[in-house]
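JOB MANIFEST
job_type = single_chain_structure
chain_count = 1
residues = 132
[input]
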Amino acid sequence: MRILLAILLNACALGAAAFLLPGIGVDGAGRGAGELLLSYLFVGAVFGVVNAIIKPVLSLLALPITCLTLGLFTVVINAAMLLLTGWLTSFTPVHFVVDDFFWDAVLGAIIVSVVSAVLNWFVVSPATDARV
């Protein structure tokens, strides 16, 4: 159930980035709202897999420059994850498109991070302690 919730939250965050930035979107989706929703759910699943497998390795390798920039390099890492998601989905019928690295990927990474944090704050409840 948590995996489906994570995919749904990723799809919402990517949809918000696509709505706010003209250089980010989904190609190959049909004209219907259901097809567009399924496309964003698929892209959200791919984005979740990329963030679960590749991002920790990349973050560990980039730890010195992340410390040097006081954590700002994580925005570049998140932008790279968006671009990698776009590249991986180019081999599928649904394409996640990120046009430019700086304006689209970096701003998209910031939007996805903020929307994901807000949605996680509202949706995911912290575990309650039964001993209280």
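[summary]
The mean pLDDT is 90.
The radius of gyration is 16 Å.
exit_status = 0
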